[in-house]
Amino acid sequence: xKALLVCEQREGKLLDTSYELVAFAERLGAExxxxxxxxxxxxxxxxxKLYLADVDKYGEYSPELHKHIVVAAVLKENPDYIIFPHxxxxxxxxxxxxxTLRVGQVSEVVNIVDGKLEVSLCNGKLRRTxxxxxxxxVLTVQAGAFNYAGxxxxxxxVEAIEISQGSSALQFVGYxxxxxxxxxxxxxxxxVSAGRGVGKKENVAVIAELAKAFGGELGASRPVVxxxxxxxxxQVGTTGQTVSPKLYVACGISGAIQHLAGMKKSDFIVxxxxxxxxxxxxxxxxxxVADVLQLAPVLAEKLRAA
Amino acid sequence: xxxxxxxxxxxxxxxxxxxxGTGDWYDExxxxxxxxEYDEYAVEQAVQLKEQLGNQPEITVLSIGAxxxxxxxxxxxxxxxxxxxxxxxxxxxxxxxxxIANIIAAYAGDKNFDVIFxxxxxxxxxxxxxxxxxxxLLGHNCASTLVGFEYADGVVTAKRELxxxxxxxxxxxxxxxxxxxxxxxxxRYPTLPNIMKAKKKELQLVPVASLLKEEAATGTEKLYPPxxxxxxxxxxxxxxxxxxxxxGILKEKTTVMK
Lengths: 306, 258
Description:
The complex is a heterodimer.
Chain A lengths: L1 E5 L2 E2 L2 E2 L2 H12 L2 E8 L10 E6 H4 L4 H15 L3 E5 L4 H12 L2 E10 L2 E6 L4 E7 L4 E5 L15 E4 L10 E6 L13 E5 L9 H11 L2 E4 L1 H5 L20 E5 L5 H7 L5 E5 L12 E4 L2 H14 L1
Parallel strand pairs in A: 1-4, 1-6, 4-5, 5-11, 6-10, 7-10, 13-14, 13-15, 15-16, 16-17
Antiparallel strand pairs in A: 2-3, 7-8, 8-9
Helix pairs in contact in A: 3-4, 5-8
Chain B lengths: L1 E6 L1 E3 L21 E3 L1 H16 L5 E8 L3 H11 L3 E6 L8 H12 L6 E5 L10 H9 L2 E12 L2 E7 L5 E7 L2 E5 L11 H7 L4 E5 L10 E7 L8 E3 L3 H15 L5
Parallel strand pairs in B: 1-4, 1-6, 4-5, 5-11, 6-10, 7-10
Antiparallel strand pairs in B: 2-3, 7-8, 8-9
């Protein structure tokens, strides 16, 4: 079985998701080749064939051109799987490649179960195994689901790749950096996060008070940030910050897959939720079945007294 | 200008899901359905674009599914879409993203839509494929995961959400398809007069067989609840008691409790 891994770089830096693809391909038992629109200096340190297209020529974000580059590598390599990270780059590019090749796509693979591709659905409440119908398929792989453990010291055999299509209808204007951070969750030892289950903006203060009693920082899930209850710098998850504190307390967070991916590497996870079956229970070391708005003040009081 | 919005009706994600009798999907009985959250942002952005252009554009809203999707279509009409299309399909849950995209592209093919809005993914399947694939099939320009949308002189200026709070700005000439991320705008609540007005708007019914010519490219083998990693301690009961037990566990198992 052969897999072509579509690596990802941004502003001159190779993204770690590229190595997660290598880990995933190892789990599949696939022979690997890679493709990257970038520079040789950022080449993934993997002992495999690397098709390299020059980012200066083809642009950092020009998906029509990147699509033709990946397809050109597919024609040379003839892989069974073309594998992307399930990221803003991957989920944008993968369907374009799948449609061009007229092959099926399986999105956001989280595991391989008995040789089958497993994906999550309904906010992580269900899982299913999916099979592509044809001989070839496009896959995207969930960020953080497959960890690259091995040494990153292989030397790729670089082959330059060129395409005849030269211009993009899309015009990339530039990046907008993340908002200035109110908090740096990446350095916090304890994070206490509020989810949609806290009900309304005023109740976030109850969770903030608990965070303070723990001597930790306040985190939040995406819906809480989208609703404007707290600033974006508090957001934990794939579109916010990925964190791994010594203690993570999830308050009223159901555990959408994007949130789990951002916090499941925490040393110890406590979930407080009315629903015992909430997907967060999958990641929790301790699942507290309670109304967090009632429990938090009791817990905070005991922490202050301790 | 001609605008299309594609919406999906999904189960309320707070539901308790059960596996169906054949073990390959969730049981659809007893579920409450609503418009896919991402698609509410798509509808709102379409209506805002129409308003920006002096209410000149016509907005068609399309959904694929059984008659229950009429409820989601009515909501979109009440939010400001002009006419609705239900592609009638009692078995839409079994269509894969490739087939769904082909149905939409077959409908849109000869209608010259300038801008097509979709959600960036559905809340149930979450494949994030359909919008981008429709754009590919139609040969339209496409930008995904929008948290900002501006339109002027035939060009969409899209702000895409990347990882870690970073965004990118891309200019996309029409005909364009954009997929909408949560937080793009503030979807309006339909007002009572607009709900009444929506009842008089056109609902066109199109049998799915007239649009779908493609076989599925992927298939679900088996559906099941996640396997619990196990070992997790469950605490229930009196609040004071729970708090004491939790603090005891944290003192024992973590290094952060002094």
